[in-house]
Amino acid sequence: MAQIFHPAFNTLARASIFGFLFIAAGLAWLAYGIQKSPYLTGQGIVRTQPVPFSHEHHSRGLGIDCRYCHTSVEQSSFAGIPATETCMTCHSKIWTNADILQPVRTSWQLDRPIAGRGGDKTDAAGWVRVHNLPKIVYFNHSIHVNKGVGCSTCHGEVDKMPLMYQAATLQMEWCLKCHRAPEENLRPRSEIFNMGWKPPADQDKRGKDLIELYHVAPAEHLTTCYVCHR
Questions:
Q1: What is the DSSP letter of 166?
Q2: CA-CA distance, 53 to 75, in Å (whole number)?
Q3: Do residues 151 and 164 make contact, with C-beta atoms less than 8 angstroms apart?
Q4: Per-residue DSSP letters for 63-76?
Q5: pLDDT on residue 19
Q6: Mean pLDDT throughout 145-152?
Q7: Beta-bridge partner residues of 186
Q8: Residue 191 DSSP code
Q9: Residue 33: predicted pLDDT
Q10: Running DSSP on this structure, what letter comes out for residue 51?
Q11: How far apart are CA 9 and CA 19, in angstroms?
Q12: Are 161 and 49 in contact (CB under 8 A)?
């Protein structure tokens, strides 16, 4: 029987198999990169707000404590977004004619929430959520704060952010890294709102002491599904 395919096709077939493997590996690498990219995670992206509020100015420059605006962070799952009244406590006296603050003054005069600019998902007050977890995730600010997790651990050094952005990926593996070894991030409650706090050289020992002091659940419990998915 006459040969149908040239012997060179054997080499081509082998090359195709190897080529397919490399292409498949490349596509997997590309998918992994996209999954970690800010395009999907939102990490490092500044959101357009009704008013370009500067945490750097208010927190670092003026020394305003986080709890002045985020009043419920120690008692509630939600940290709280300040009402217009909170803004006007100061801005009824200073920067009273600044164009940039017109949405705040309008909200105060009409007794209505600050209007959003559209485009991004906003809450009832018109502010755009920067750290927005999926609905399948349950997160409680008060538990983390009272167990020794500081604001900057999750939100980054917000006192250095002229405009707020998401400092971490907020992906499940990022959360689990802390839940598997909470001692690496726990700090004294007196330092929770200190943006400049850095882990000491003996953080491992101190963290384990804080686990006992604050009755932090063991890693076996913290990494079970129902802790975050309820």
A1: B
A2: 25
A3: no
A4: ---HHHHSTTTTTS
A5: 77
A6: 97
A7: 149
A8: G
A9: 76
A10: S
A11: 15
A12: no
- 119 alpha carbon, distance to own chain's centre: 20
Contacts of 6 (CB under 8 A, 6+ apart): none
| Contact status, residue 195 vs residue 152, Cβ threshold 8 Å | yes
Q: Which pair of tokens denotes residue 122?
A: 């906003």
Q: Indicate the angle between helix axes 102-110 and 84-91, nearest 10 degrees.
A: 120
Angle (CA) 218 220 221, round 5°: 70
CB contact at 8 A, 114 and 125: yes
Whether the predicted pLDDT of 68 surpasses 70: yes
**Cβ contacts of residue 194 below 8 Å, gap of 6+?**
150, 152
Tokens encoding 19: 């080529």
Q: What values do phi and psi take at 14, rounded to 5?
A: -65, -45
CB-based contacts of 157, cutoff 8 Å, min separation 6: 167, 195, 196
